[in-house]
């Protein structure tokens, strides 16, 4: 998320957000290095960079890029899909909104359509997509928690001292909590879920629990709560005691 504050123009920020969220897996230190390496060639305006480049040029620029399962050609194809979606709709936000319905309880149906469209714009047939590429752009229909996609939406839709925002036509009330190992453990400890797998059903269950407390903004707690698992200067036992929960409830995974 820290990279997004470098881009005041939402056209740049949404591209940087897609890149940063897609690479947000693995050790935090390595994520920061990889996101920095991915964004650096795009300069001050990822939007202008993409609009000025053809696919072979993008592939050449990222030929040596690698972040765990993500190779440079996977990143280049995703960026090409982003460019083509922007050319079609004017922005990623407009591309997302083309499948948006105010009657949907959450963003999930829209997110599924958004991923379908984005993958279509990359030009890679489903049968030719490798594991590494599918990992970069996971499809919610497969049942995974879609943490990184929901993280991207949190950054884009919410606007406060944490999330920079910029997408003003989607209600924060429809967001889904980005579930990682930290939020899953906290959800188990607080009794927000009893599901043992951090999958999409778990994400929806934890979000529903948060929605009972903050119906207009159920994801507002994500950043603060996940820091309890990420930072080394926090005391989970003290937090659970303050919540009237026994520290023994904290899952030792």
How does this structure look, described?
By secondary structure, the protein is mostly helical. The protein folds into 2 domains: 2-169; 177-253, no CATH class. The protein contains 13 helices and 2 strands. It has a two-stranded antiparallel ribbon. Helix 4 runs antiparallel to helix 5 and helix 5 (72-89) crosses helix 7. It is globular. The model has no long low-confidence stretch (mean pLDDT 90).
Descriptive tags:
two-stranded antiparallel ribbon; mainly alpha; 253 residues; 2 domains; single chain
Give the structure's gist in a few sentences.
It contains 13 helices and 2 strands. It is an all-alpha fold.
**Count of alpha and pi helical runs:** 13
Series of H and E elements: HHHHEEHHHHHHHHH
Radius of gyration equals 18 Å
Low-confidence stretches: none
Based on Cα principal axes, name the global outline. Answer: globular
Instruction: Report mean pLDDT, rounded to a whole number.
Output: 90
- Spatial strand arrangement across the major sheet: 1-2
Largest sheet: 2 strands, antiparallel
By helix and strand content, what is the structural category?
Answer: mainly alpha
Question: How far apart are the termini?
Answer: 26 Å
**Helix proportion:** 40-55%
Q: What is the tally of beta strands? A: 2
Question: How many domains make up the 3D coordinates?
Answer: 2
What fraction of residues sit in β-strands?
under 5%
């Amino acid at each position: 998320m820290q990279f997004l504050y470098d881009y005041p123009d939402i056209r740049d920020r949404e591209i940087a957000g897609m890149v940063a969220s897609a690479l947000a897996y693995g050790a935090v230190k390595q994520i920061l290095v990889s996101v920095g390496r991915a964004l650096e060639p795009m300069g001050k305006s990822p939007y202008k960079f993409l609009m000025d480049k053809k696919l072979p040029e993008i592939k050449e620029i990222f030929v040596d890029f690698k972040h765990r399962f993500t190779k440079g050609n996977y990143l280049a194809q995703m960026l090409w899909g982003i460019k083509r979606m922007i050319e079609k709709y004017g922005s990623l936000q407009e591309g997302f909104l083309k499948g948006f319905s105010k009657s949907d309880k959450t963003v999930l149906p829209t997110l599924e359509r958004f991923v379908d469209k984005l993958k279509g714009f990359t030009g890679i047939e489903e049968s030719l997509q490798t594991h590494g590429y599918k990992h970069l752009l996971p499809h919610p229909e497969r049942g995974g928690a879609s943490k990184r996609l929901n993280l991207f939406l949190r950054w884009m839709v919410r606007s406060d001292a944490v999330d920079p925002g910029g997408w003003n036509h989607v209600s924060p009330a429809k967001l889904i909590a980005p579930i990682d190992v930290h939020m899953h453990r906290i959800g188990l400890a607080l009794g927000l879920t009893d599901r043992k797998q951090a999958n999409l059903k778990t994400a929806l269950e934890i979000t529903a629990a948060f929605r009972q407390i903050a119906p207009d903004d159920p994801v507002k707690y994500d950043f603060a709560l996940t820091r309890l698992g990420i930072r080394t200067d926090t005391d989970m036992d003290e937090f659970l005691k303050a919540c009237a929960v026994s520290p023994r409830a904290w899952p030792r995974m």
